[in-house]
Write a structure and sequence with these properties.
- Chains A, B: This is NDP-hexose 2,3-dehydratase family protein.
- Chains A, B: Residues 5-207, 221-423 form the dTDP-4-dehydro-6-deoxy-alpha-D-glucopyranose 2,3-dehydratase domain.
- The structure is a homodimer.
- By secondary structure, the first copy, chain A, is of the alpha+beta class.
- The first copy, chain A, has helices spanning 4-18, 117-120, 183-189, 198-205, 219-232, 345-349, 399-405, 414-428; strands spanning 21-25, 33-35, 42-44, 51-60, 65-73, 78-87, 90-99, 107-110, 113-115, 141-150, 156-157, 160-168, 178-182, 234-240, 248-250, 255-257, 263-271, 279-287, 291-300, 303-312, 320-323, 326-328, 356-363, 373-380, 394-397.
- Chain A has 8 helices and 25 strands.
- In chain A, strand 20 (303-312) and strand 21 (320-323) form a beta hairpin.
- In chain A, helix 3 (183-189) packs across helix 8 (414-428) and helix 4 (198-205) crosses helix 8.
- The two termini of chain A are 26 Å apart.
- Residues 431-438 of chain A have low confidence and may be disordered.
- Chain A binds chain B through residues 75-77, 79, 117, 143-148, 162, 164, 208, 220-221, 223-224, 227-228, 230-231, 234, 236, 317-318, 407-410, and chain B through 75-77, 79, 117, 143-148, 160, 162, 164, 208, 220-221, 223-224, 227-228, 230-231, 234, 236, 317-318, 407-410.
Chain lengths: 438, 438
């Protein structure tokens, strides 16, 4: 069985073979994209793919807030699908070496199929999507997971993708851009920076588990807490013209927040050999700096738990989803008093290395986000730092409970799912993940 | 243990004791409610309770449609809660004899607590909500069910209520408007017309079950089908001013569809003794005729199944929820060709009495809807009438699978939950429900 080094070598070889180039361009050089006259929304001539519009968000509750921001609107549901197959009784997953223009290293391991509806209905008039037939009923399969999951609520307006894992029952043709990998190999790769892409992490998190050991709170208590958190907030969102957004400024190369915080909208030109079409331009969202995505972990009565946070994000379809303990871009809070900084951010960002159970840099979806990297961490804490009765909006859950919730829509946000894939990778690695292995 | 007749007698006695009157009034006589100047939206002076606005719905997919309609907007999440307690080891449920102005017989059995957020935060300055403390952490309880569930997607814009069943661990004070009833008694009452109100039916459907016998499709296959159905439709909704709605006409007493179909908006004046305040006026939605809400049922390999339909309704938060086999107001289809009538409507409405396993008239929520009655039915079919491979958008499921889905938001619409409570009542009644008792 090839090791992590072999997979990296193969990725490097595919990277060399495809010779792709990505460069920033001014908006005026976008091909097929333009700013719509009255609204200033960034749209494609075909009316498909996605648009960049404006969103006004107001949150009523304990801490009322209101803001405006650019937002990516993409209401079609795409397919993120991993094809699985047993070889000698061991389940393998067919992973793709795929280029996405926003990835810092361009090419990462992605699901077998990663297709917007525009992709597979051929709006772009490119090649057909390889292996798609396994996810659309064309080939016989056994469904292991199939669930609509949200993506970044801070950047997307109600975006969801169908996260699927299906097991092939017959022979599957090979292709040089694809490799069969075991969960063990994927676990090893998930410990490396920028190898397993966001979509792959999200889909892997939806793999059903065997049920876990006894949790601090029962499943019904956990769902009850989620219902309570959803009732506590009233979130109102309204799509508004992009052009009139308060505090956002449009230049020839980018649309920026006037304090240069959060993210900016930019444009790139892409040339590639193994994509469905060989040249295109497109807008991307670019965060200003690396984020932190972290679970604080503790063991109660021998059972590892992580601290989940009920998060309100403007782009969620439902009011609240569970996120990691910390999910923040630290620089966004540089100007605010300590009392308004996200809870546990200092615990996580200044943790002694002996407390860090997992740490790797991963990118968010490279088809929409440019250099959107976050350090994903799991940090062990004690009762003083993270009490068994946590602050409002937080709750201790087991990885098994997160896996149960990941079988349904609207429960785990994309960062929580990414980090769940990392938790599972820690457990699979054994010794390195001992703290979280039941 | 008191029988069904005793409960009806008690309801009649409470009805006599409270002397309430409901009368239609013109909009001009609404007190505290008015039409907002520019939009024509019907709003309360306090800015709370609910508003009647306009909604534009467009559905992209196999059969694109677009329409405009008045819609009730109420974004606060209320609590529908049933308090349970064991007496001699048997679980009892504390049901309330509650008046709602839109119920044809005014007073029906409702959950212990039925409170909008406005109710329990005292916007109306009335009496406090009895037993509310059991649902808000004030009294120790064991949570049996707690889930946000949608209400009528054809009449509400993204309305959800928290459906809760909690078991009291200590003594519970008595009150003359409340009675402890067993599941068996409730099953008997659910076979009567207009006794168990919509909120009670919805909450009872969320009571967890023991898991059922083997279904035709596994749970993961069922969820996969739901994910596929959600991906198949793109639903876009936009709140628009009520005043400019196409095909709707405002008169002094009502707002009607120009073809007098669907429903109309009316106003009523209410006087009552046992409500939180003793007199008020309010708008209500009034359908033009009685609806049909029905499951077609068949038994496969000894296991009873019902035929669920993936429904798109404009007011759903998520695109699709599962509804009954038939959910329709027959008159709305009187003018359309047979091929466009809802599937299975003729099978259900002209079923031979020997095929009818359940039939009772129930009302929808009497706090928002006036005389909104539907005949709830369960009708046995054969392979010719309802094949094991049903038309697109339909799928055979077991009552146990519906119960599993009812533990989560976004799966079962309110009619499906009502009818699930009826299915459970059939099973509890034994002989009468033999066809659906595993």
């Amino acid at each position: 069985m090839p090791g992590v080094a072999d997979v990296r070598a193969w990725l490097g070889e595919r990277r060399d073979a495809t010779r792709f180039q990505v460069g920033r361009i001014p908006f005026a050089e976008l091909d097929g994209w333009s700013f719509d006259g009255p609204t200033g929304n960034l749209v494609h001539d075909s009316g498909r793919f996605f648009t960049v519009e404006g969103l006004r968000v107001s949150i009523d509750g304990d801490r009322p807030r209101e803001w405006q921001q650019p937002i990516i609107c993409q209401f079609e549901v795409g397919i993120l699908g991993i094809l699985a197959k047993r070889f000698d009784g061991v389940l393998h997953f067919l992973m793709q070496a795929k280029m996405e223009p926003g990835n810092p290293n361009l090419l990462q391991l992605s699901p077998t199929v990663q297709a917007t509806r525009s992709n597979y209905t051929k709006v772009h008039r490119g090649a057909s999507v390889r292996y798609l037939e396994y996810f659309t009923g064309g080939e016989p399969v056994r469904v292991l997971a199939d669930v609509l999951q949200s993506e970044h609520g801070a950047w997307f307006c109600r975006k969801r993708n169908r996260n699927m894992i299906v097991e092939a029952t017959g022979d599957v043709p090979e292709h040089e851009d694809f490799r069969w990998l075991t969960l063990g190999q994927l676990a090893g790769l998930l410990h490396l920076d920028n190898v397993v892409n966001m979509d792959a992490r999200s889909v892997l998190a939806c793999m059903p588990g065997a049920g876990g050991p006894t949790a601090l709170h029962s499943d019904v208590e956990l769902r009850s807490w989620i219902a309570a958190e959803r009732s506590r907030h009233i979130v109102t969102t309204e799509r508004v013209p992009r052009a009139g957004l308060r505090h956002w400024v449009q230049g020839p190369w980018s649309i920026d927040h006037e304090e240069r915080r959060h993210f900016r909208v930019v444009a790139v030109s892409v040339r590639a050999g193994n994509r469905e079409v060989t040249r295109w331009t497109q807008p991307l969202f670019e965060p200003y700096e690396t984020g932190i995505v972290a679970y604080v972990t503790r063991t109660f009565e021998g059972v590892p738990h992580v601290l989940a946070r009920a998060r309100v994000e403007g782009g969620f379809l439902d009011t609240v989803e569970l996120g990691p303990t910390v999910q923040a871009i630290p620089g966004n809070y540089a100007h605010v008093p300590a009392s308004e900084r996200p809870a546990f951010i200092d615990l996580v960002s200044s943790a002694d290395p002996s407390r860090v159970r997992y740490s790797a840099v991963h990118s968010e979806e490279g088809g929409r986000f440019l250099n959107a990297e976050s350090r994903y961490m799991v940090v062990e804490a004690d009762e003083d730092e993270a009490p068994i009765d946590p602050p409002a909006g937080f709750r201790w859950v087991t990885p098994g409970q997160l896996t149960m919730l990941a079988q349904h829509s609207h429960y785990l946000n994309v960062q929580a799912r990414s980090l769940l894939a990392c938790l599972n990778a820690m457990a699979a690695r054994g010794a390195a993940g001992a703290a979280l292995t039941p």
